[in-house]
Amino acid sequence: MSKYEFLDSQKAESNNRNPVVNMCRWLEVSTSGFYHWRTRPQSATSVRRETLLARIRHYFEESDGTYGYRRIHADLTAEQTQCSPELVR
């Protein structure tokens, strides 16, 4: 998790009373950098991993939680989704 992700999760907490300026100072990041990060479009890698995660969950739930990463990787390979076993893991 990046510092910006952590800061964003803390900002969303209902019991957090710290302003973003203070949290940025504590984490030694710029406030403008944080707000720029929030408006940035999602990266292609991030989109691909989210799509892959949905397929992995599908195969895991389809097997009633018994498939490990090797079997799921084999199923993904059979449907011609390119990924490494380590990425599935």
TrEMBL record:
Every HTH-like domain range: 49-89
Protein's recorded name: HTH-like domain-containing protein
Domain of life: Bacteria
Pfam family membership, one: HTH_21
